[in-house]
Amino acid sequence: MSGTFEMAWMLLKAMKPFVPKDIEEQIGAGTYRTAYRSPDVPHVTKFGSGEGLANALILHRLARMYPEDFEAEELHAAPKGLPDFIMQDSETKDRLKWNDTPSMRGQNVQNRNAVAFTQRRGDPLETNIDWNNYDTHLNLRNRLHSEFPITQAMRMWDVKPQNWGVFDNKEKLIDPQFNLRGPVNHLKPYYTKDFMDASKEFQSDLPTLDEFAKPVVDAAYNTGDQRVIAPMEDLMSNEQRQLNESFKWLNP
Question: Rounded to whole angstroms, what are the CA distances from 64 to 41, 101, 103?
Fold first, then answer.
């Protein structure tokens, strides 16, 4: 890895999550996480209830292999002093607690500790392409699959403009998802030599989910409260299943 990217990696490791001071610092809200930026901090912090740990681990590894194309996230236990709100509902404008986002309602997450991610702050991707056209998304995703075949094997998706950032004039994916299920057909990859070389490299330096999620798992166990520990164990079990399914086509 070049010196430039080694420096970027060192900066990523040095990032610490910050506590939002105002709802105006919210810059985006996805299904499971909400992103914040502060004028005093050179990175963004995302808060959620933990869904997506498997996706973050895969992105983390891809960013080490392809640092010009993927931007990693760093995982943390949430800092103390989080405000009552964690996001503002885009429709009702209600301020919601982190475990009361629309996707979490009705699920037993009330005792789950918040999970924080940090990521270098890039500029929003500006485009004049009509992203309401599904074919536009599909064509871009297929182009990425062609350029990085292991991402096709892991069924990478959700590559809309909001999930890109511009860093030093270079467009990079910042929040893709993997293990796509549903009506879109996915074919197993061709296990060419180039594919197997990339797959072997990807798997050779891959942390386990337990290693990657250690900061948040330790935070849950350190409470000594089974009402907090049990939901974290359930989360880790589900995320491990997601990870296993994402990797099932990496080898013949």
Answer: 24, 32, 31
**Nearest CA among 173, 168, 179, 161 for reference residue 28:** 161
Is residue 29 classed exposed, middle or buried when 0-12, 13-18 and 19+ CB atoms within 10 A define those classes?
buried
Q: How far apart are the C-alpha atoms of 54 and 141, rounded to whole Å?
A: 19
Retrieve residue 167's tokens. 């860093």
- The reply to whether 250 falls in a domain is no
In a domain, 204, yes or no: yes
Q: How confident is the model over 107-144, as pLDDT tens digits?
A: 555 566 778 999 999 998 877 776 667 777 788 889 99
Q: Is residue 86 part of a domain?
A: yes
Radius of gyration, CA atoms only, the chain: 18
Residues listed for the chain:
252
Nearest to 78 by CA among 230, 239, 232: 232
For residue 27, is it within any domain?
yes
Note down the domain range covering 58: 3-245
pLDDT tens per residue across span 203-232: 998 999 999 999 999 999 999 999 889 989
Q: How many structural domains are present in the chain? A: 1
Helical pair 53-65 and 226-246, crossing angle rounded to 10 deg: 50
Three-state SS for 213?
coil
Q: Is the whole-model pTM more than 0.85?
A: yes
